[in-house]
Design goal:
This protein is mainly alpha-helical and 414 residues long. It has helices spanning 5-11, 13-19, 21-25, 31-48, 56-75, 79-102, 106-130, 164-181, 189-209, 212-229, 233-251, 254-257, 265-281, 292-299, 317-348, 356-374, 380-383, 388-403.
């Protein structure tokens, strides 16, 4: 039987929604029509594709989050800053639901995994040639002097276009995604070696960012990966205890307490305090989407960073969501994130160990953990051009939790 046009659109929803990305990441004349197209695509996919088993609580959280996005835009005193963030989050949500409805079988999941691996390699390459490195923040290496700056905001080519902390927040979950995929037993050795080499390259770029939050988040991701992979319960909890002890020791070391302005722990505590004051004063509407630097400098000036510091965000993903969307929007975001993580984690116990489905579920789980942990100390990924990555991983969690049936975990051994 010949496939109808609407069924074809529903089957290719992820690809079409992803292809609309440039119109959202670089807003222009056609961005609003693209938003309407993305909305129409999700409606068609929900009606024509195989229905995903999504709980009503997830649907309610999504509706509240969308409402919070509209309220944040309405309340913003700086619409020129708000519109780009609005479009990125809106596209991210569309991509999230396209993934949740579209990745229902092994073939679509494999195609998506391959696309994300290639995108990861491209992102790492762009990071090397376009980041304004923090040489000397924690250490200095002569290697920094030999890195080319081919993408720059500065006409002289001195300052990179990408912030190191944003690069760390972007590459961290992708690094865990690639690492988990390499555990598949039936994967051919050339592919395994290629994935391992990519992980090594990502580790090198992450080291160069000197992002302490990124390092901790990736460490937490690999700790979770090891916890899932190990079968012995004593080894699992011993690993957790060792990781917690090492993390606590590093947190209170001089290297982590020091730093200038917002990079220091004192600076972060001051920012979080200011953010809580803003949220207390404007709980339901928030301060306005992406209006943090304007509102902070005008009404909540920093003693450490200075009265006109222009700090871009709250350096906490969850607080930033509350400031942008209000407390109900923040609660909806946390509920959606936690729900996706719980569904992805459940998927790791339902698929055969080290099968592709198991590796895919582990990849989504550990990627979400990296984003969640990094979000405790930074919010660079919330409004950056790579912000849709948050929603991609949420969509992966929803697709895994809603699409997998019961299987036998011991059918395949690692």
């Amino acid at each position: 039987m010949r496939e109808g046009p609407l069924a074809w659109v529903a089957r290719h929803n992820v690809l079409i929604t992803a292809a609309l990305g440039p119109l959202f990441l670089i807003p222009g004349l056609y961005t609003m029509p693209a938003l309407l197209v993305a909305l129409l695509l999700q409606i068609i996919a929900a009606r024509r594709s195989e229905p995903a088993r999504i709980s009503s609580y997830i649907l309610l959280a999504t509706v509240v989050l969308i409402a919070g996005l509209g309220v944040g835009l309405w309340a913003s005193p700086a619409r020129d800053l708000s519109w780009p963030v609005f479009f990125r989050i809106a596209w991210g949500l569309a991509l999230c639901w396209a993934i949740a409805h579209g990745l229902t079988g092994r073939r679509s999941q494999r195609a998506f995994a391959l696309a994300l691996v290639l995108l990861t390699a491209a992102a790492a390459t762009l990071a090397v040639v376009g980041t304004g490195w923090f040489a000397g923040k924690l250490f200095d290496l002569p290697f920094y002097n030999y890195l080319p700056t081919l993408i720059s905001r500065d006409p002289a080519g001195i300052v990179g276009a990408f912030h190191p902390n944003v690069i760390a927040a972007t590459l961290g979950p992708l690094m865990l995604f690639v690492s988990a995929l390499s555990l598949e037993t039936t994967l051919a050795w050339p592919w395994k070696v290629a994935l391992w080499l990519l992980v090594v390259a990502l580790a090198g770029v992450l080291l160069l960012t000197q992002s302490r939050g990124g390092w901790v988040a990736v460490s937490a991701g690999f700790l979770a990966l090891s916890f899932i992979w190990l079968k012995n319960s004593r080894a699992r909890w011993g690993l957790v205890a060792a990781g917690a002890g090492l993390g606590g020791a590093l947190l209170w070391s001089r290297t982590w307490l020091g730093g200038g302005q917002t990079a220091s722990l004192a600076g972060r505590f001051e920012l979080w305090g200011r953010s809580l004051l803003m949220l207390r004063d404007m709980p339901f509407t928030g301060i306005g989407l992406a209006a943090f630097p304007v509102v902070m400098d005008a009404f909540y000036p920093s003693f450490i960073a200075g009265p006109n510091a222009g700090v871009p965000h709250a350096h906490n993903l969850y607080l930033q969501a509350g400031l942008d969307l209000g407390i109900f929007g923040m609660a909806a975001f946390i509920a959606l994130f936690a729900g996706a993580l719980a569904l992805a984690w459940r998927g790791t116990g339902r698929a055969p160990r080290c099968s592709f489905e198991w590796c895919f579920a582990v990849a989504a789980t550990t990627g979400l953990i990296v984003i969640g942990v990094h979000g405790l100390v930074d919010a660079g990924l919330w409004a950056a051009r790579s912000a849709p990555l948050i929603w991609v991983f949420i969509g992966l969690g929803l697709s895994i939790g809603s699409g997998q049936g019961a299987t036998h975990p011991e059918r395949m051994a690692c």
